[in-house]
Amino acid sequence: MTDFLENKQQIKQQAKKQLRKELLHQRRHIPLEIWQQKSQALCDRISNWQVFQKSQNILAFTSFRQEPDLSSLWQQFPAKNWGFPRCIGQDLIWHQVAIANFSNQMQLGSFDILEPLHNLPPMDLTNIDLILIPALACDRQGYRLGYGGGFYDRWLPKSIGIKAGIIFDEFYTDQIPNDIWDVPLDAIITNVRLLIS
Q1: Residue 166 has pLDDT above 90, yes or no
Q2: What's the Cα-to-Cα distance from 104 to each of 65, 97, 176, 193, rounded to whole Å?
């Protein structure tokens, strides 16, 4: 029985790996102008969401590998408290970033992702209203497919706040292979729809 379960798990991980490869290829080939238009549409959809409007303490991400670019969102709402992650070891460490001084408070991290400087104040993770979460894809059950590093998988179970997956609409799918440790999201937001799980 143990061998059967291990084999089943290996098949699932292989399916995830292949799906990641295909989706990264697809996203990498979105023309720049289209990527910018879709990113802006996504920012507009988030900014019109009542949950976002009521939220003061928000965790977000900087665009990597042609993820949606949310920079116009935080530039439009600099009075909100914005937190961004640093990857340290196996963990995500969140820092508060002053949007008015954004470019001076960020640097390229170990994965070439724009991250906050280490000496910025930490975010109070006990008082988070909304978490905008990057993903390669999300499905109808609210599960997300990440890059396979497990940073969000390890962090999300202990997180507080409404969890929203942020993707372009073509990466919303019926079903993604998921594991027992995967945390379903509360909402999925794309450039054309907002779905509450």
Answers
A1: yes
A2: 22, 10, 38, 34
